[in-house]
Design goal:
Layout lengths: L6 H20 L6 H12 L3 E2 H8 L3 H13 L3 E5 L7 E5 L1 H21 L5 H19 L2
Antiparallel strand pairs: 1-3, 2-3
Helix pairs in contact: 1-5, 3-4
């Protein structure tokens, strides 16, 4: 039996439970939780270079390329060659991807509310601070 004070296991278990909840909420839109993160980034700023997506999401370029290909196949995004760097491209929302925001952003808000239910703003800020500290401790940052 794993002790209840094993922080790594607690974080992993929370992540799995949250990811499963998100997956269920996004199922009607044929989006995975990770694809949703790309869409969220694009809804905040359209036209992001693919290497920036990889950097921000801490994913290798091959994983990002697969997610981009899948989202492109679903009609949510499009690739546009970067005229300043022939080795990369920028990712833009399609019209369908822009429309999707009207449905998915409220779901994302509801997920946030569910995850943080019963927590004060101060507790949420402290949790973010502590998880960031743990991440930095382990990554050497």
């Amino acid at each position: 039996m794993i002790p209840n004070d094993n922080i790594g296991v607690l974080i992993r278990n929370a992540d799995l439970i949250i990811a499963n909840h998100v997956r269920k909420q996004l199922e009607p839109f044929n989006l995975t939780p990770e694809q949703n993160l790309i869409m969220l980034m694009l809804w905040n700023q359209d036209g992001i270079p693919s290497n920036e997506l990889a950097l921000q999401l801490k994913k290798d370029k091959a994983s990002i390329a697969r997610m981009i290909t899948s989202l492109e196949g679903k009609g949510y995004i499009k690739r546009v060659d970067d005229p300043t760097d022939k080795r990369t491209f920028k990712v833009y929302l399609s019209d369908e991807g822009k429309r999707l925001a009207h449905f998915v952003v409220p779901i994302q808000q509801k997920i946030r509310e569910t995850v943080t239910a019963g927590m004060t703003k101060e507790e949420i800020a402290e949790l973010i601070k502590l998880i960031t500290k743990i991440t930095n401790n382990v990554s050497g940052g």
